Amino acid sequence: MKAIIFLECKDGSPVSASLELFSAAAAVGAETVPVTVAAPEGYLYEDAVTEAVSAKAKAEDAALVLLAATPVGKLVAPRIAARLGAGSVNDALSVGAEGGKFTAVRPVFGGTVRETVDFCTDKAVISVRGGSYDAPADVPAAEELTADLSGGVYAKVAEAIEEAGAAVNLEDAKVIVTGGRGMGNEENFKLCEELAEVLGGVVGATRPAIENGWVGRTHQVGQSGKIVAPDLYIACGVSGATQHVSGMMGSKYIIAINKDENAPIFSIADVGIVGDAKQILPLMIEEFKKRK
Ligand SMILES: Cc1cc2nc3c(=O)[nH]c(=O)nc-3n(C[C@H](O)[C@H](O)[C@H](O)COP(=O)(O)OP(=O)(O)OC[C@H]3O[C@@H](n4cnc5c(N)ncnc54)[C@H](O)[C@@H]3O)c2cc1C
């Protein structure tokens, strides 16, 4: 049984969540067919991926197509499924196979519940959330596909404008320091940015921190922001609301700083520090600088 592994690329390299797909395919004993996609000049990457991956899956008679659950992956997965007559699940936490059919576990109700989906189709197209599997040490070379977009109706890109702050790559960051409303103001929020810089990481934010204008929208972590799974996640002045936690619960090690010892964030933290983040962060910054 074959699985197409779509390796989504940013700046020429596969995003880390797509490398984890090899482990998801191994979990169901699939033979992997890794591919990347080059979009023809002036066309949308999403359209190119949809057509190229669908064509490859048909040519290989693949039973499974795996994509990373990025905005691109989540958009194209159901489109590919429609072309293949396959079932589709987005944002899976794991992939399985039982009695010749695929299964997938996905979060629902903002991550408070996990449900297992049993596919009734023979074929499945599944996007898998980053951090759900470990990427293997060695990954095989991928075939670069070029989409044939000659026969359909597709959007053409008239002009591409880069969003301010779009360079923030929270999804691939190994360390994220997130500031919440508890940081109090923009000046204090800079402490999160400073710690992130010292640790070689990226700064994240809750929705209130963004709505207060302390940092750009591209830094938002959560249900309506980015889904992240770094090795280390430091949450400062973050209460741990479901809509935030659902975006970072795949983090490998979580440190939470909150002055309220009953804050829900402590229930998912590996280490909890009860105290004022404005006082604790300067100490951490100083200590990490010394150790470096
Ligand atoms: C449909 C929908 C989608 C949403 N999507 C998102 C999303 O994607 N991401 C997101 O983050 N939110 C999202 N939200 C909002 C979410 O529900 C919460 O309101 C938000 O996550 C809370 O942010 P917070 O933890 O920064 O603020 P609060 O909940 O106000 O928590 C602030 C915390 O800081 C602590 N604190 C205060 N002062 C200090 C101090 N000096 N030192 C240490 N701790 C201190 C407090 O004890 C408190 O626990 C969404 C909401 C809805 C309805």
Description:
This protein is of the alpha/beta class. The protein has two domains: 2-146, Rossmann fold (3-Layer(aba) Sandwich); 175-291, TPP-binding domain (Rossmann fold). It has eight helices and 16 strands. It has helices at 16-19, 21-27, 45-60, 71-84, 186-198, 207-211, 242-245, 277-291, and strands at 2-6, 9-10, 13-14, 31-38, 64-68, 87-92, 94-98, 101-108, 113-118, 124-128, 143-146, 175-179, 202-205, 232-236, 253-258, 271-274. Strands 6-10-5-1-4-11 form a six-stranded parallel sheet. A five-stranded parallel sheet has the order 13-12-14-15-16. Helix 3 crosses helix 4 and helix 5 (186-198) runs parallel beside helix 8 (277-291). The radius of gyration is 20 Å and the shape is globular. The mean pLDDT is 94. The structure holds flavin-adenine dinucleotide. Flavin-adenine dinucleotide is lined by residues 180-182, 206-209, 220-225, 237-239, 241, 243-244, 247, 257-260, 263, 276-278.
Notable characteristics:
292 residues; alpha/beta; Rossmann fold; 2 domains; 16 strands; 27% helix; binds flavin-adenine dinucleotide
Between the first and last Cα atoms, what is the distance in angstroms?
48 Å
Radius of gyration using CA atoms only: 20 Å
Query: How many domains comprise the coordinates?
Result: 2
Q: Do you know the CATH topology of the largest domain? A: Rossmann fold
Largest sheet strand order: 6-10-5-1-4-11
Ligand inventory reads: flavin-adenine dinucleotide
Shape type: globular
Q: What helical percentage do the residues reach? A: 25-40%
Task: Set out the fold topology.
Layout: E1 2-6, E2 9-10, E3 13-14, H1 16-19, H2 21-27, E4 31-38, H3 45-60, E5 64-68, H4 71-84, E6 87-92, E7 94-98, E8 101-108, E9 113-118, E10 124-128, E11 143-146, E12 175-179, H5 186-198, E13 202-205, H6 207-211, E14 232-236, H7 242-245, E15 253-258, E16 271-274, H8 277-291
Parallel strand pairs: 1-4, 1-5, 4-11, 5-10, 6-10, 12-13, 12-14, 14-15, 15-16
Antiparallel strand pairs: 2-3, 7-8, 8-9
Helix pairs in contact: 3-4, 5-8
The protein binds flavin-adenine dinucleotide.
